[in-house]
Amino acid sequence: MLKPKKNAYIMTFVQPRTDSLLTISRLSPSPQSSQSHEQPTTKMSPQAPWAPLLQTHISHLKPCTFALATLSTHPSPTSLLYPAPPPSPLHQSPLSPRCRTLIHRGSFCCLPENAHNPLLHHNPRVYDSDLPTFTTDCRMAKVMGEEATGGAEVEACFWVEATQNQWRIRGRCWLLSEESPVPPDEVMARLRKRGNRGGDGEFSWKKEVQAHFGNLAPAMRGSFANPPPGAPLGNDVGKLVKGGKVEDRYVLADQGTAKVARGNFRVGVVVPNVVERVDLTADEGQARRWVWWWVGEDAKADGVQRGWRECETYP
């Protein structure tokens, strides 16, 4: 593995919102009310052994961005603008590699403190987790794979220049909305109960999604009510207008731009199954690499710590 040059990054473009991750599924509405605090049906997970160091490293990133990669069999909204590539001889249907740069929004249920968030204490802080999150628009190509019944396989990659470390996280990704905010069991099983640390009223998953919406700047909130991403300029987009804002006092409004924007807003949650770290701080001949993979909290074997097996490998 080549050591990146000074100030080189894994991705060379940064977009707070993203373009095309087609295979992530939307959750079906929960049969139970999204307003209630649901107890998980499976045992809750302890903190991952790799998580504290990862959090220390990515704290150097300003803003905290990462690259998210997928493979998709669905066309992009912009694919009508150019000829489709021929399918790969290895696959019956054409696969389209996708990669976009996202802003890390903290671990799920651990929204970072932000004095500018009008919903900072909207929800009691009941859980901890090691599950990376991001936000996106449901009209983007990444969320069109509604026929999928589970979370899509994804890989997230952080490059931290300050520590000369690269982190890659592979797992499944789920999208939560204000209308369907209750996480699946696969997410719930990776949460840790920490008790109520303050907040307004009773905990609910709907308020957790709303708090992520409030965490964005007014212009970013308003962007979720823009014309559909990927639509050519000049197309009929109804009453949607680019450049609207959702100010703090309207963030939970039941009409207008705020309501439209929240309807398109999604919180992405990645459930890690494999984590890799490459340390390039030493000379290239002394670089080191570690791999952790999830084997289950109840696994009892050498090299297993809190449900994760660890192995150091050649870089």
Task: Characterise this structure.
By secondary structure, this protein is an alpha+beta fold. The chain has a single domain, classed as Roll (Pnp Oxidase, Chain A), CATH 2.30.110.10. It is 12% helix and 24% strand. Strands 1, 2, 4, 5, 6, 8, 9, 10 and 11 form a nine-stranded antiparallel beta sheet that branches. Strand 8 and strand 9 form a beta hairpin. The longest helix has 10 residues.
Key traits:
single chain; 315 residues; alpha+beta; Pnp Oxidase, Chain A; nine-stranded antiparallel β-sheet; two-stranded antiparallel sheet; 5 helices; 11 strands
Brief rundown of the structure:
With 315 residues, this protein is of the alpha+beta class.
Q: How many structurally independent domains? A: 1
Q: N- to C-terminal separation?
A: 7 Å
SS content category: alpha+beta
What radius of gyration results from the CA coordinates? Answer: 20 Å
How many H/I helices?
Answer: 5
**Low-pLDDT sequence parts:** 1-42, 144-149
Output the helix-strand order. HEEEEEEHEHHHEEEE
Average per-residue pLDDT, rounded, comes to: 81
CATH superfamily label: Electron Transport, Fmn-binding Protein, Chain A
| Number of E-type strands | 11
The largest sheet is:
9 strands, antiparallel
Note the beta-strand portion.
15-25%
CATH topology: Pnp Oxidase, Chain A
The CATH architecture can be named as: Roll
Q: What is the class in the CATH system?
A: Mainly Beta
Helix content: 10-25%
Query: Which word captures the global form?
Result: globular
